[in-house]
Amino acid sequence: MDWGMKNRMSKLIKEDGRCFFLPIDHGYFQGPTSCLEKPAETIRPIISCADALFVTRGVLRSCIPAGIDKPVILRVSGGTSMAGKDLANEGVTTSIEEILRLNVSAVGVSVFVGSDYEHQTLMNLSKLVNECEGYGIPVMAVTAVGKEIGSKIEARYLALACRIAAELGARVVKTYWCEKGFEKVVEGCPVPVVVAGGPKCETELEVFEFVHDGMQKGAIGINLGRNVWQNAHPVAMAEALYAIIHEKANAKQANEIFQEAKKGKK
Question: Which of 49, 84, 127, 163 has the lowest CB atom count within 10 Å?
Answer without folding.
Answer: 84
